[in-house]
């Protein structure tokens, strides 16, 4: 069993590769829900949907998020009526939100809803939210504390970031399926996908049970750097790092995670940082990490899985 921690486009792309390499019973993808919010009466889980759509092959290939062949009749009608349109909901995407919202109101857990939706999209690997209760990312900025979607979508990441808070994390309810995996003793490795460290992975690690499990681990944690050549391929990770006083490099990400990660995978563009990362007492795999196609996602996943299995077997 390999457990992948994921969020955003980078996490979804590596999840696709891992799913191509590993059989369903050997992979669980744990997804960030700190981005979740309610909008226009709908329960929206952006990262869960990005991972799910990408695994199903129905994501928008241009943006990396949202649905392919999307239509926008609902948003056009809403705009004509003077409704809120800053967070755009496509018609196909809206159907998923409607099903999720209806099930939540009937008392169905988010993890069970996600399992059901994934099954209907033909996804055989387990996709699990990090929490069945609400955990919400709050962004501390020079304009005050903002809800994540206000910062990320409405304000387009323009405010200067000063920190983060994960409201509800202390009382987060880890889904039963994930609890069983954490108690099983069968996890061979945890893979941290090339997702934003602050807003995709930190919310997952803020859940006390998950954080304690990682801290007491008897398996290696391998992370793929989301920073390549000093930039984030998607999203504001590099901007956030600079604003928080960290170098926007693969080495900066290594130092941010510290002892929570045992081994690192970095892009060949950052090969010059290999020895500096080794001086942080981390083994390093240098390879092509830019997943511009499903084939490249699979090739990267093969390298990551082989790296993980070598480490798990005690071979350095």
Distance between the termini: 20 Å
Helix content: 40-55%
CATH-defined superfamily: CofD-like domains
Give the low-confidence spans. none
- Beta-strand fraction estimate: 15-25%
| Gross morphology | globular
Q: How is the biggest beta sheet arranged?
A: 7 strands, parallel
Oligomer: single chain
What's the total number of strands?
14
Work out the helix count.
13
Element-level helix/strand string: EHEEEHHHHEEEHEHEHHEEEHHEHEH
Secondary-structure blueprint:
Layout: E1 2-6, H1 8-21, E2 27-31, E3 37-39, E4 42-44, H2 46-56, H3 73-80, H4 91-105, H5 110-120, E5 126-129, E6 136-141, E7 144-147, H6 148-154, E8 161-167, H7 176-184, E9 189-192, H8 197-205, H9 208-215, E10 221-224, E11 227-228, E12 231-232, H10 237-243, H11 250-257, E13 263-267, H12 274-278, E14 283-287, H13 294-312
Parallel strand pairs: 1-2, 1-9, 2-5, 9-10, 10-13, 13-14
Antiparallel strand pairs: 3-4, 6-7, 6-8, 11-12
């Amino acid at each position: 069993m390999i457990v992948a921690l994921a969020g955003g486009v980078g996490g979804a792309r590596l999840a696709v590769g891992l799913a191509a390499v590993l059989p369903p019973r050997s992979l669980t993808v744990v997804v960030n829900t700190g981005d979740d919010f309610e909008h226009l009466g709908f329960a929206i889980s952006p990262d869960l949907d990005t991972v799910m759509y990408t695994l199903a092959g129905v994501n928008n290939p241009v943006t990396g998020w949202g649905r392919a062949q999307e239509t926008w009749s609902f948003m056009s009608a809403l705009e004509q009526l003077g409704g809120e349109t800053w967070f755009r909901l496509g018609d196909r995407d809206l159907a998923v939100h409607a099903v999720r919202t209806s099930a939540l109101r009937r008392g169905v857990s988010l993890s069970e809803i996600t399992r059901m939706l994934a099954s209907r999209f033909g996804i055989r690997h387990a996709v699990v939210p990090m929490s069945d209760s609400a955990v919400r990312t709050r962004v501390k900025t020079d304009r005050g504390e903002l809800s994540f979607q206000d910062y990320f979508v409405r304000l387009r990441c323009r405010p200067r970031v000063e920190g983060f808070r994960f409201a509800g994390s202390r009382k987060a309810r880890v889904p039963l399926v994930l609890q069983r995996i954490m108690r099983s003793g069968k996890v061979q490795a945890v893979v941290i996908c090339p997702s934003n460290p602050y807003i995709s992975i930190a919310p997952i690690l803020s859940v006390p049970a998950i954080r304690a499990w990682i801290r007491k681990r008897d398996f290696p944690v391998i992370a793929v750097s989301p920073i390549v050549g000093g930039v984030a391929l998607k999203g504001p990770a590099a901007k956030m790092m600079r604003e928080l006083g960290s170098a926007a490099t693969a080495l900066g990400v290594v130092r941010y995670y510290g002892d929570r990660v045992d081994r690192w995978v970095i892009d060949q563009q950052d090969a010059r940082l290999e020895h500096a990362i080794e001086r942080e007492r981390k083994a390093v795999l240098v390879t092509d990490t830019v997943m511009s196609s499903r084939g490249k996602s699979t090739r990267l996943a093969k390298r990551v899985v082989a790296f993980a299995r070598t480490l798990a077997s005690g071979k350095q």
